[in-house]
Amino acid sequence: MANSTRRSSRTRQAEVRRRAKAARRDKRLAARRYRTERSRRRWHWDGDGLITLLFAIGVLAFAFWVGRDTYLLQHRGEVVPATVLDLSTGKNARIEVRYTTKAGQTVQDSTSNFDEATVGGTVEVVYDPEEPTRMQATDWGFDYVLPGLLGAVGVAALAAGGNQFYRRGKHSA
After folding, report:
1. pLDDT in tens, 26-44
2. Cβ atoms within 10 A of the Cβ of 52, count?
3. Rounded to a whole number, what is the distance in angstroms from the first to the last CA of the chain?
4. Is residue 19 situated within a structural domain?
5. Are residues 74 and 142 in the same domain?
6. CB neighbour list of residue 49: distance below 8 Å, 6 or more residues apart
7. In this structure, what DSSP letter does residue 117 have?
8. Which pLDDT value is given to residue 126?
9. What integer pLDDT is reported at residue 68 of this predicted model?
10. 3-state secondary structure of 29
11. 34 located within any domain
């Protein structure tokens, strides 16, 4: 009986050693596969990636421009009354206004940043004293929703475009 117990104990120990050896072998093989796969990753030229990166740069530049205008009007803008000269409605509604800056310069310009206006009526506009043609109606508001959304789209496109240049293997999708 003792001999049988000793043999089964040896068998169990041998089985444990065999499994440990197999686990070490599997780990080595997995590491080798990972290194091989990693070495196949290469930076390469991709036309779609270039187009995506150019799109991202354009969207980010537009987001910066819109955000900068909003910031400048919000922080250094002057509010003056303006006369509505023309109102075009439809998909791209615009008003053309004439106003006099606090420095005495008369400016005539158009904007699509307004809520309500009537031809011949008066609306208040906020303009940048350093660039009087940068203006919008005061009822439009100063929020950063559009620049924020455009910035998020631009960053996502930038990441996607950059990722298209770094692929695994020759034929990976």
Report:
1. 888 887 777 666 556 666 6
2. 21
3. 63
4. yes
5. yes
6. 161, 162, 163, 164, 165
7. -
8. 92
9. 93
10. helix
11. yes
